[in-house]
Each structure stands twice: as C-alpha cells, then as structure tokens.
Design a protein that fits this description.
mainly alpha; 2 domains; two-stranded antiparallel ribbon; 2 strands
Length: 309
C-alpha cells in the first residue's frame, strides 16, 4: 500500500460502497450484455449449422422431404426468431445504456468522495450539487432510451445516492483521499485495462488461427474440385460459412480496436499515476481527479476504439 505524507490512516473504498442505483444498473448491463452476446453467438452457430445440413448426405425424412433441407430450414427460422426477439427486447442498446449509466454513477461518486471537480468545495452545498448533477446526467440518458430502474422499483427510488462510505471518505484529510483514490480507483482501473488488452490479444490470436485454418480447408477442397480430383466442392460451403461466422464474431467483439484503445488508456493512467504521486498538489487535485475520470469513461474508450480501428 502506498503511503503519502500527511495521511492519518487508510480507507478502503470498493464498489460495494456505491449506492444501490449503481449496483442495479450494473446488474442490468451485465444481464443485457449476456443476452445480446448469446443471441449473436446462437445466430452465427445456426447459420453455420444450416449451411452444413444442406450438404450433408442425410437420408430423406420421408417421400418428398429431405432431412438436410428440413434441418437447414429450422436453423434459418431460429436465426430469424432470435433476431426478432433481440430487437424487441433492445438487449444491445439497453446493455450499452445501462453500462453508461453505471459508469457515470461510479465516476460521479468517486469525484464527490475525493473532492474531484466540481465537488472540491467542503461546504454542504456539494451534496446538493452532486445529486443535481447526477440526476441531470441520468435524465439525459433517459432521453436516448435508457429505462431508469427507479421507475419500476420503488425501494430503489427511495435509496440514498450518497452512502455513508462516500461521506466518510469525503470527510477524510487530503492524504487519505489521495491514497484511496490512487489505490482503489486509478490503479484498479489501470490493472483492469491491462487485463482486458491481454485477453483481447489472446482472443485475436485464437480467432485469427481459426479463420485461417477454416479458410485453408475450404481453399484445399475448392482446388481439388477445380483440378477434377473430386466430384463436388459442397464440403467447402460449411467451412466457408464457419470462417465467415468467426470473422463476424471477431468483429462484433471488437478485439483488435480494443487492444489499441485499452493499451492507450493504460498508458494515460500510468502517466497520471506518476503525476499524482510526484507533482500534483492539493490545489491541483480536483482537476487531476476529473481528468482521470475522463480517461476511464466509456465514451473516451469508445472514441479511441473507433479512431484506432
């Protein structure tokens, strides 16, 4: 644990110390993310299965009905059904909106708790400013489709937006707030971006290898057919469909652009960590916290991912 001059003790501040509204939006974001990703995964698998069923030498189901064609038709119908269900539930948009809401709440809570801009004033008016800014930001999200869980959950609407742990950290001396923010927020986020970039690199290697092997197999079978060494090249179709599915999955997961984006965020956080440890004064602290929260915001990461892809 890093020590700072003037610190009178250490306060551990975790996600569990954030208000219930954060936990609810975070849980919804995770659930909708799983739903959207699962729907896409099953659609790609069903498309590949349908392409495979058509070319398999399956016996007839009965007189005029081919088993392979029937299985393919069921697979394609499943793709359409999944697409319709996902669009009706708005799984992807609600995943992204709830993730934005959760990260916005977390960022505001951290800025309030450690005196980040605009909550660097010790007066009691900071509580009112915090609640006002939080409500204003969440109201903007509702304008673009976010479903505020407080509208359907009265107990959530009655919950406090400023927790006792947030007040306790805010009341602490500068050294304690600085130590807590660097350890439990900045370093924690830097480690998360490091792990995420490493996971994306592993996933990129795996999917690139899979795409390459499937495409090579399809190429080999097509060449055999072109040289009249085999009577049919139909076996290449499911391989090509599987390769296309791997390409689509890799693009949907955005592994490659996220590697660059998360690596840049990690570097920016490392630079901010050094500055906070060596040169940031108490007077500069509020703006330094604000800048750190800007760096880790989902909007900043998405901007980097788009421009580095």
């Amino acid at each position: 644990m890093t020590k700072f001059p003037g610190a009178t003790g250490s306060i551990v501040f975790r996600n569990s110390d954030l208000p219930a509204l954060f936990h609810r939006t975070d849980a919804i974001a995770i659930a909708r993310q799983r739903e959207a990703i699962a729907a896409t995964r099953y659609q790609l698998l069903l498309l590949t299965a349908g392409a495979t069923a058509v070319v398999l030498p399956l016996p007839p189901l009965w007189a005029d009905v081919q088993l392979g064609g029937a299985l393919a038709a069921l697979a394609y119908a499943g793709v359409l059904l999944l697409g319709y269900r996902t669009s009706r539930r708005s799984a992807k948009s609600q995943w992204q909106l709830n993730r934005s809401a959760a990260e916005f709440i977390k960022s505001m809570c951290w800025r309030y708790s450690v005196h980040g801009t605009p909550f660097d004033d010790r007066s009691t008016e900071s509580d009112e400013v915090f609640i006002s800014r939080l409500k204003e930001g969440l109201r903007e999200l509702t304008k673009v489709g976010w479903d505020d869980p407080r509208d359907s959950e009265p107990e959530l609407a009655a919950g406090e937006l400023i927790t006792p742990a947030m007040r306790r950290l805010r009341a602490g001396p500068f050294g304690v707030r600085k130590e807590t923010f660097i350890r439990d927020r900045l370093i924690e986020q830097r480690n998360w971006y490091h792990r995420s970039a490493a996971n994306s690199r592993r996933a990129t290697r795996l999917w690139s290898l899979s795409i390459g092997l499937l495409t090579l197999a399809a190429l080999f079978l097509s060449l055999l057919h072109a040289l009249a060494l085999t009577g049919s090249a139909t076996a290449a179709a499911p391989l090509a469909a599987a390769a296309a599915g791997c390409v689509a999955w890799s693009e949907i997961r955005r592994h490659q652009p996220l590697i660059a984006a998360h690596s840049l965020v990690k570097e920016d956080l490392a630079a901010m960590h050094t500055a906070m440890e060596t040169s940031v004064t108490e007077a500069q602290w509020p703006s330094a916290v604000y800048e750190t929260e800007r760096i880790v915001s989902p909007q900043h990461t998405d901007w980097l991912a788009r421009h580095r892809s």
